[in-house]
Amino acid sequence: MAKFRYSARDKDSKLVHGITEANDKDDVITSIQSKGLVVVSVSAIAQKTKAKSGVKKLRRSLKPEDLAFFCRQMATLLNAGVTLLRSLSIMLKETASRPLYEAIDKISADIEEGCSLHDALAKNKKIFQPLWVSMVEAGEASGQLSATFDHLAVYLERAGSVMRKVKGAMVYPVILLVVCVAAILIFTLKIIPMFGDIYKGFNIELPALTMAVMQFSKFMQRYIIFMLIITGGVFYAAKVYVNKTLAGRIMLDSFKLKIPLMGVLAQSSIIERFAHGLAVLIKSGIPILTGLDIIGKSCGNKIYEDAIAGIRDDVRTGKSLSGLLDASGLFPSIVTQMINVGEETGRLSEMFDRVATYYQERMDTMVDRLTAAFEPLLLIFMGATVGTLVVAMYLPIFKIATGGAGQ
Q1: I want to staple 82 with a disulfide (CB 3.0 to 4.6 A). Which of 77, 125, 233, 330 is the partner?
Q2: H or E element that contains 93
Q3: pTM for the whole thing?
Q4: Which residues are bridge partners to 262 per DSSP?
Q5: In 259-347, alpha helices (H)
Q6: Each residue of 15-71: pLDDT tens digit?
Q7: Cα dihedral sign, 106-111-115-116
Q8: CA–CA–CA angle 61, 67, 70 (5° rounding)
Q9: Which CATH number fits domain 195-407: 3.40.630.30, 3.40.190.10, 1.20.81.30, 3.10.450.50?
């Protein structure tokens, strides 16, 4: 016997949902009608259950690439005339992420029960942000759902491209930093104490640099565990303060924007996300006020979030968006001027798209330059630090050799 999911209405026209086992759909319909219910829909879930047997093989994590692939494929399927439920069924087999698999499964079930797609997405807030819900709602209302998924795919692919470039650029510097720290710890905790034991047998006065390094080594040997505990405690307390308190988040987000060089990169990333998000929303038919509300909450920085919320309220009163962006002091003049042109010409989405493209290219250039500058600086620091430790350990040997030569 196969399993079937059904929806029906009772005598009060209330929806009733359930799962039952039967030989075929006719048996299910007969069984439901015998209970005095009016059948709304019946669908087999035996094949879906079989697919779930492979859930354990799916990846537990959800990557941005998974969502971009989902949107791109949904756009292609819907544009080809495949029904929504059939498209979701196909994507259920294609996804490699368990969280996304489970979300698609729930969405399919909700739609079969008469729920709209945007409402079904809204029930999975951990995966689908408000941006998705609003765009899909507009797409359903306009009958342009495939175009909506296409816009979402472009948005996600663009955001993912920026993140991959930043992460890729950080791999080599992080490796160098780890090697540098490991080398210093090995010298401090293992090699320097060995030299210290050797020099105890010599009746000579050690150079000041050697004495300083050996004292540092003794300090590290004695207090390193305590220092690690204190450092871990400070980081944990800071994490709790930032994640649990509004003041902590504001302090961190403000600090990010003030870091030399990195602050400019962080601001560029926020503006790129803001402009591209608004461009996509406006193209999807979302009103500018709703777009500002959605993007403000997803910009990733509390300083900008509060500023955009205030701008949205002022735009509602009829004030110019470009003027308000300029007055906030958070958006460079090139942004406000381009938005002003968009307001005057009625091509606001196009101008936002151009701003996003400009800042994406700017971020690419900045990441390349920062990486090119940071790597040699880190190598110099690593060489100078390790070199100083080596010289400090061999200075007494040079002194002994010089004294021996003089005798």
Answers
A1: 77
A2: helix 84-94
A3: 0.70
A4: none
A5: 262-283, 288-297, 302-316, 321-328, 333-345
A6: 777 778 777 777 878 888 888 887 777 776 645 444 444 444 788 888 888 888 999
A7: positive
A8: 120
A9: 1.20.81.30
